Amino acid sequence: MRGIEVVPSAKRLITSLRALGYDLPQAVADIVDNSIEAGATVIKIDLEYLGDESWLRISDNGRGMSKAKLLEAMRYGSDVEYDSETSLGKFGLGMKTASLSQCQRLTVASRSSPTRASISGYSWDLKHIQRTNRWEVLEIPPDLLSHPLFQQLRDSTGTVVVWTCLDRILDNKYPSEDTQQKQFMAIFRELEVHLSMVFHKFLSGQLARKKLKIYICGNPIEAWDPFCTTQSETIRCDPFAHPVVEDGKAGAIHFEPFILPREDQFDSPEARKLGAGPKKWNYQQGFYFYRAGRMIQSGGWSGLRTRDEHSKLARIAVRFSPSLDDTLKINVAKMRVQLPPAIIREIKDQIQVVIGEANTRYRKSGQSAVPNLRRPAVPPSPQPTKNSIFVTMLTQEQWASRLLVAATNQERPFVQKAINRLESQTRK
Questions:
Q1: What is the pLDDT of residues 324-353, one digit of tens each?
Q2: pTM over 0.90
Q3: Are 274 and 303 found together in one domain?
C-alpha cells in the first residue's frame, strides 16, 4: 500500500498543545531541565512588567547550541538522543509545549562557541501560526539579538529563553500598580517554592555534578529538603529496592523511607515551619518520586492508602532511571508518576511498617517499635541487612529478578542460565 503523509493543521494542533496541563512553575521547571542537560551551573529567571511588552526570561551558562542544533531543538518532537539513565528530557516537546502554555511568543537564542560571539535565535509566534497555518519558526535577525535581553550571550556560552505576550501569566485587565505588585510577588513566591523543591538535590550538591545555583530576579533560592535530614530526630529507615524488567532489561525502583520529627521534636520553630512543606503536613506525606535526581511528584500514596493525620510524618523517596518511564507512566509534562498495581502489592507490607512507625511517633508512645531504624548521621545501607525491618519472604521469581538486577552486564548471561536451570529443576 502507498503511504500518504498527512501533516497536522499547525494552528489547530499548536493551540491544542497549550492545554497539556502545565502551570507556570511546572513550565519554568521544564526549561530549567534543558539548562541542566546543557551543563549549566547558573540559571537566572527574570520577569518584568511592561504592559503588553512584559517578558519572562530564563538564561543559563551552559554549553549552548549551534545554529543547526538550535533549529532542531525548536522542532516539535525534536530528534535528540536522550541518555536512558541520566537524561532529564524525554519527548522532545518540553521547551515548546511548556513555553507556549504560558505565552504566545517563544524566542530562544544561544551561543556555543566560547571564543566567537556567534549568536543564533529563533521564535515560535502563535499569531504567525494562526495567520499562515504553517509549522514555521521565525529566524531572529542579528540586530535584534543585540537587545539587552540577550546581553549575557555576548560574554559567555549559554542559552536564553524569552517569553513574551504573556497571556496566561499576567492579568492585564486591571493594570494598577498595586495589582501588578501583588501579581509579581505571587509569581516570585510560587516559582521559588516549586523550584527549591523540584531541584533540591541539584541545589544542595547531592548529585555527581557541580552544585547548581538558581536566581529569581537576582535572589538565590535555597533547596527545600522534604526529608529534614539535618534534624537530629529524623529517622532514616533501611532502604530497599524493587526489581523491574523493562523491554528485556533489568532495573530497579529504589525506596528510601524517612520518619520526620513530631512538631515538638524539631531543632527550632523555623525548622518545624520549613519541614511542613509547600502543601503543609498532611498533603506532603507519602512518596517523593525522583527521575535522574529531579523530583517529578511530591506527596500522596499512589493508591496504596489515603492521607491520614496519623501518618503525616512518613515520607519516602522513590528513585528510578528514565529507562523505567514506561513502567511508571511518566506523562509528557513530566509531572505525574503512577506506580503499577503489581508493584504496590509487592511493597505494601514494607510500606506499612514505615507507616506504623510514623503512627507510633505521632502518638508519642515512646520508644520505637522497630529496633533497626537509623539516624541521618549514619549512612544508609545500600541493601537491606539480615536484621533489616524490610526483610520479607521472596518468591523464586522475585529472587531471580533481584539477582538479575544485582548482576553486571558480563555476569547476567550466566545468572540467567543458572535461573533457567533452577526453574527447570523446580518443574520436575
A1: 888 888 876 667 788 989 899 999 999 999
A2: no
A3: yes
